[in-house]
Amino acid sequence: MLTYFRRPVVLFALVLVAAVTSFLLLKPDAATIAAPPKPVTVNTHQGTLPKTRAVAPAPDTAALPPATPKTILARQQVPILCYHQLRNWRPRDSKMAKTYIVEEENFRNQIKMLADSGYHTISPDQLYDYLLHNKPLPEKPIMLTFDDTNLDHYTVAAPVLEQYGFRGVFFVMTVSLGRPNYMSKAQVKALSDAGHTIGSHTWDHHNVKKYNPEDWVTQIEKPSKQLQEITGKPVLYFAYPFGLWNQQAIPELKKRNFRAAFQLATSRDSLDPMFTIRRIIASGYWSPKQLHRSMVNSF
Ligand SMILES: [Zn+2]
Predict the structure, then answer these.
(1) Which of 58, 116, 147, 247 has the greatest number of C-beta atoms within 10 Å?
(2) Band of pLDDT at residue 64, cut at 50, 70 and 90
(3) Do 78 and 180 share a domain, yes or no?
(4) What are the DSSP E strand ranges found in 56-102?
């Protein structure tokens, strides 16, 4: 009889123990609760820590659902510059080509202007977290991107960026790796190791609007795999060759692990702003002042 009488008590005790245990196990650890979201302060200019842009203090934003396209489109755009060649003009360079060729001295002055004006470079990860999760950015954020694997990205750009504590994004087309006047695999790895981001710019610069199913393997899948092997890091960001994109390309990129893609200066897609992020070409004709004016007008 006694056992019958006690059974509910024992059951109750078991339930209580289970409840307490699960509460203790599920309770987030104190550090998670206590630590407020930290502003990202990767880049420092001449030893001073950047202030963060005033963004409403957020709870742990990663736990919230990502922002809708409408919200993303409504956020203040971060200026993003796109560089190609960094070298002195030659007599045979066409008028058009000079738009894409920033002379070394001018490049130094442009970057110095950005640093002197209080800009702080951000990574694509920071941009992603800002656009999707409203994570704070450093004051006066800017992103510097370099397309086409040119050797001068390593020999000219990287040392100048280093001088100001800046970090860049290098969109590599893998066909060029190791060719004369292009970066080697070791140089791409060195940029990655130094904290720059390596993104994909296809295998040989084919326009994504013209891909057949095989091209998605050749131009996108294989290059990602190769860049991942070189850097030891996932390849999450893509720059469209010629800045050209269409809506059909976006799901194909998503399927292949990309988190965002960068075009040039046309308007963003209303449904997929993360895959049509805008950049402007830093023209070889622009003085630092003109560059600044264009940035302010375009973003
Ligand atoms: Zn390109």
Answers:
(1) 147
(2) confident
(3) yes
(4) 80-83, 85-86, 101-102
pLDDT at 277 over 60: yes
Does 18 fall in a domain?
A: yes
Q: Is 56 helix (H, G, I), strand (E, B) or coil?
A: coil
Domain region containing 27: 2-32
Would you give the DSSP letter of residue 120?
A: E
One domain for residues 188 and 277: yes
Cα-to-centroid distance, 147 and ligand 1 (Å): 5
Summarize pLDDT for 137-156 with one digit per residue, the tens: 999 999 999 999 999 999 99
CA of 76 to the centre of ligand 1 (A): 26
Residue 188 alpha carbon to ligand 1 centre in Å? 16
Give 180's DSSP letter: T
Q: Give the distance (Å) from ligand 1 centre to CA of residue 205.
A: 6
CB 263 within 8 A of CB 277: yes
> Could you tell me the distance, in angstroms and rounded to a whole number, from the CA of residue 200 to the centre of ligand 1?
10
